[in-house]
Amino acid sequence: MCFIYRLHNMKTTYPAMFYQKTLLRLNFLTGALGVLALAGCAAFAPAAPEQIVQKRASEYWQARITGKFETAYELSTPSYRRLKTLDQFRMQFGPAVSVQDAEVASVACEPQKCVARMKIGAKPALIGVKLGTIPLYMDEIWLLEDGQWWHFQEP
């Protein structure tokens, strides 16, 4: 009862101070909710083309390394897939060079085209010669078609 009396007495004695504190609390809560709302919107923001191409390039090479040619083939441009069958794709990347690992070194994008610089660890298949894994760098082209990034290669 004493607390309620003091609170009531405070409101009547110091009304400006009471309302000022209340407004400060409301401003703080409004600001905190605004920050949370912006953070939530950032979580739904679309990924940058560089990030998408980096992920897809990694998927493409992991599929090639593990022999999942169907997956790698599906990441090729639709126009390439209209011209080449899965078997032709599989034959194009035969066992002459054994790729041991691959990683995306960098990605640079323009509006419709990205270039992914790949670091490939390859083991050449030479009869009678034992070579270790040789690091190679190569640039791959990724094209934006129908809202998706696709690996480009000459047919």
Largest sheet: 4 strands, antiparallel
Under CATH, the topology of the largest domain is which? Nuclear Transport Factor 2, Chain: A
Query: What is the domain total for the residues?
Result: 2
- The N- to C-terminal Cα distance equals 87 Å
Shape: globular
CATH class of the largest domain: Alpha Beta
Which architecture name of the largest domain does CATH use? Answer: Roll
Low-confidence stretches: none
Give me the CATH superfamily of the largest domain: NTF2-like, domain 1
Strand-residue proportion: 25-35%
String of helices and strands:
HHHHHHEEEE
Give the integer mean of the pLDDT values. 80
Main sheet strand line-up = 1-2-3-4
Helix proportion of residues, in percent? 40-55%
Task: Give the helix/strand class.
Answer: alpha+beta
Radius of gyration: 30 Å
What is the number of helical segments per DSSP (H or I, 4+ residues)?
A: 6
E-strand count: 4
Structure commentary:
With 155 residues, this protein is of the alpha+beta class. It has 2 domains: 2-41; 49-152, Nuclear Transport Factor 2, Chain: A (Roll), CATH 3.10.450.100. Helices cover 50% and strands 27% of the residues. The protein contains 6 helices and 4 strands. It has helices at residues 2-13, 15-43, 49-65, 69-74, 78-83, 86-92; strands at 97-109, 113-124, 134-145, 148-152. The protein has a 4-stranded antiparallel β-sheet with strand order 1-2-3-4, with helices on one face. The model has no long low-confidence stretch (mean pLDDT 80).
What is this structure, in a nutshell?
This protein is an alpha+beta fold. The protein has 6 helices and 4 strands, in the order H-H-H-H-H-H-E-E-E-E.
